[in-house]
Amino acid sequence: MKNIFPKRKKHIPPVETAVSKDGFPDFMKKEIFTQMKSIERFLKAYTDAGKINFTFYKIHIEKIKRAYIVCDYANYCCAVFGAYNFEIIADLICMPVLMSEFNCANPVLDRYTLVIMVGESDSRDKSSCVNRVLKSGAKLISIQNKCAGDKFKNCVDINYRQLGVVPTAVNTMNNIALSLMCLYFGKKGQVITDLYYEIASKMIFEIGGRVKQLLKKDCILNSLSKEIAQCKRIIFTGINTDFACAVYGEFMAEKLCGIHAKAVPAGELAFSQEAPELIIAFISNRELMPPALMALYPYRENTLLVVPQNLKNEMSGFENKVTYDGLLPLYNPIMGNVVLQILFYHIAGYKSIPTDKRGSE
After folding, report:
1. Which of 31, 85, 86, 106 has the fewest CB atoms nearer than 10 Å to its CB?
2. What global pTM score does this model have?
């Protein structure tokens, strides 16, 4: 297959955002409520005329047999999200792995292996991982901030300086980067049709606008947050890519707000020994909706559903719902994560928890 772009795209150096709150009470809120601009800037850097431009990847995807997405705990939800999509869109066996575990395990690393790393460049675990992968002959791609100084070519710059205490806008852009990447490889490997590629590529540019619409529900989510802040135990759940939202929810609840939380696949709820006060469930794929609702039905009275608007009326028996303007199932978990960002920002406020990194002033 011919390259869509005959010329290699020049590396775009990262531009740090100004250390200013711009009228927001803290950096975390600023990052959540201005992420549309960050998304637009990122998409502009890695697309040309609506087409995904990763031509600097010197990777023959048809020769790759397996992939690992490795990351730190803060980005593990992105790895789960990416792994599901790579298997569906790129037809590639893919496993999410924590970077610390990857360095201590014995993964298959050879010229038929692709390793995608998600996380900051100043991590000691990441340096060990990079050295190990490059020595093995496996292919390496890194998605991170300010990676211009790295010694390998396959870098995707998120081009963002995070000043909030937990990843919000950065989480969104990591997931968009993984979505672009699996679409690019799915097209290059002729796994997906031209029509699907065109629709998915066009829809990626709608994410910023739909996030903006979702942010208008801030008052509604704020009122929900006040009730959720009283909970001591929360289960987050979902099926397939929606489980990535559950993983993000567990991270946000425990890391930011100190709430005991657990991510449980919807099909495993019946076997959970937890006694949660609340279940927050993500359902964004119509095909997977029946088994998800069946697993949730016994807990419907204390379940909050996060769903696309077009599925809302198909979930009878569940009273508590937060809706968003849905996209393709490939992208819907990105919207679910933004719901969590708003919810837990307000929960942190009710608990008087600092939301900025130290020394960010």
Report:
1. 106
2. 0.91
